[in-house]
Specification:
Length: 197
């Protein structure tokens, strides 16, 4: 079946998510399967469409589209730590969701240009609505692409142009690791070093 998302828990542990199989599997740094895969039906989840690694050890965020439910699970003992149901109704959001967590909190991005920041207790800290193609949290703000430009948005500075992107191909995804930002297109990956001023 298809792997929908690959995320690194740490340098020695990688999580593979398959929406069609409704499970996650773990590999080590040599891509060798590590233990048994976790099937979501064992946690009474039947249509998980997005996952994100949590900053807390042994935990993952899951979004179940069937119940519009966001859950924080401990994947070691297969227990639910936090959950909120009817998320789409509570936040009045729609579209495809993407989850990412950093030191600031849990970020929810939609394909309809809507961003929600949650704190560690799933309280809404802030909501943003602006045009972006792909976005990723960085510190207290958001790095995003729009019209072949890389932008940074923070509540204090507003929208600031960071870099002209040299590709003519559409951006498929962006990812930040440490002070490096990766922009994936159909033909390659561009790497930028983020320098603090």
């Amino acid at each position: 079946q298809r792997i929908d998302k690959i995320d690194a828990i740490n340098a020695m542990k990688i999580v593979l998510f398959s929406s069609s199989q409704q499970q996650i599997c773990f590999t080590d740094n040599t891509l060798t399967l590590n233990g048994e895969c976790l099937k979501f039906e064992s946690m009474e989840l039947f249509n998980v469409v997005e996952i994100a690694v949590s900053k807390r050890p042994d935990m993952l965020w899951l979004f179940d589209e069937l119940n519009s439910e966001l859950r924080l699970i401990n994947y070691v003992n297969k227990s639910t730590i936090q959950q909120v149901g009817n998320l789409n109704g509570l936040l009045d959001i729609s579209g495809t969701l993407q989850l990412k967590e950093n030191e600031t909190g849990l970020w929810l991005f939609t394909d309809r240009n809507y961003v929600v920041l949650f704190d560690d207790y799933l309280n809404v800290v802030n909501t943003y609505h602006f045009n972006f193609e792909k976005a990723v949290p960085y510190k207290n703000g958001i790095m995003y692409t729009q019209e072949k430009m890389l932008w940074y948005y923070s509540p204090l500075q507003g929208h600031v142009i960071v870099q002209d992107i040299s590709t003519l191909n559409p951006v498929e995804n962006i990812y930040i690791s440490g002070n490096q930002l990766f922009i994936k297109t159909q033909t390659g990956i561009e790497v930028f070093i983020i320098q603090e001023k």
